[in-house]
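Deliverable D5.2: sample structural annotation.
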Amino acid sequence: MRRRLFGVLACVMALSLVGACAKSGGTGTTPPTTATTGPTTATTSGTSGTSGTSGTSGTSGTSGTPIPKATTLQAGVLTVGSCLDYKPFEYKDSKGNLTGFDVEITEEIAKRMGLSKVNWIKANFDTIFTALATGQKFDAVAAASTITPQRSQIVDFSDPYYNARQSLTINKDKTPDIKTTDDLKSGDTVGVQKGTTGKDWATTNLEPKGIQVRTYTTITDAFTDLEAGRLTGIINDEPSSIGETEDRPSLDVVEPIDTGEHYGIAINPKNPTLKPAIDAALAALIADGTYKQLFTKYFPTLPLPPEFAPKS
């Protein structure tokens, strides 16, 4: 992207990023480790390319602009790491099928690159970027990940594909008077996900006021604790919080927090062929209106940002 990435392994040993899935990720430090993987779920799209490389990029969108060729770890397959439990970006539906905004965007990109499928690998967000930086674990990470200067030192990022805000969620049955973070007081406890920019924001803006910040590996556990009254609030990405509260009637997202964040697909820094192909495929699906259709599907109450509007 816009940084030097050879010398990455040296950076990885000295620099690390704590991430937390889905979500805008944080800027803390963790030792380089390989992300923990679980069962993989492959989805089929597009046509496979020649052996050892991704498909000979087809054309996409109304303009017919060709997608540059890109090599991948496995011929014809885009291997993608993600948390797979961050609604509405990546999650299992009631039938156990993997779905979500990140999932559909990534699979559409892979299709336009001429790849036969996406192999999704479940990983812990707090180690997912260091795992990607080794160049051996994933081709990319699609996990509602905020593009940050710290992360950009060790991995590549695609062009932005989503404008993100943080938010405050409260339990309206237990603390109905809390409407903004200004209503939180010393001794209150807010939940955040490990390694996210939500955690960074809470640590910077709330801890100095005596508000305790409790970290969770998965944000769903934080929402469970908020329901039970073990937390006063949660700082988390707004669309994720909206998705979590849909089936939790006692919880309410009361305040959006604009932090100027943008999500990007994190890319293997050791493979210079991937970013141009992914960016071209992303631009094509924005231009022909595919992005708008998916955005409206997963975020029906949010306005489409003008930069993601169809070009035709």
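Annotation notes: The longest strand covers residues 251-263. Residues 1-20, 24-63 have pLDDT under 50 and may be disordered.
The annotation will be released with the project's public dataset once the embargo ends.
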